[in-house]
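DM from R.C. (forwarded with permission)

"hey, sorry to bug you on a friday — could you get me a structure for this? deadline for the figure draft is monday and I only need the backbone to look sensible"
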Amino acid sequence: MAILDGSILDGALGKLDGYVIYKVGKKTHARKAPKTIANPRTEGQTAQRSKLPGAQTMHRATRGSVLERVYTIVAREEERRSGYHWFLHANMKVFGVNDYVDYPRLVLADGSLQLPFGMRMVKGDAGKVEMEWLDNTSTVTAQSTDRLMVAAIFDNEPYQPVVLENVTGCRADGRGVASIPGGEWNEVHLYCFFGAADGRRYSSCMYFSVCKS
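My reply, with the result:
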């Protein structure tokens, strides 16, 4: 970068012979113009670009749902700009070309609440899933009234997370049940997490899946 004060180009702006001329305050500067990328669609660049539309599409589907509130809260906890930016930061790596989504690595919920210990699915079929866990009630990050919540993505709607409505179970219960709605799906991806009774805190999620056959 060069300072052009006192030269015949002092006060000029724009591009000239491979340089960009611009002003900062009262001083005129010149720097080399960036080189045009000969091949802007290399394999790596194409793969990277393919991640963003998938992440954006899935985030849009969460608007107006409990998940949108989860992202707003966790973004505040982690001092990120917004729930949208938090979601991209957490999940860009799980999307790929040809509508690929690495569902087991997808983060659909997160936050400062603790998950119960030893959470596992003890029964799962096309109608419902049953979960069990060890009660770890202790402090504000794990209270007995924290309730089980389940988000689902069905394989026939691969970018459409939904929070299931018929879910029962609190942390102190040690077990919970979630009803799975019917439809033209063969596999459902389930993300189980906990929410505080006042809706101000949420936990990270644990992944499970269920197939009809």
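R.C.: lifesaver. The longest strand covers residues 187-195.
me: no worries. Residues 21 and 30 are 4 Å apart (CA to CA).
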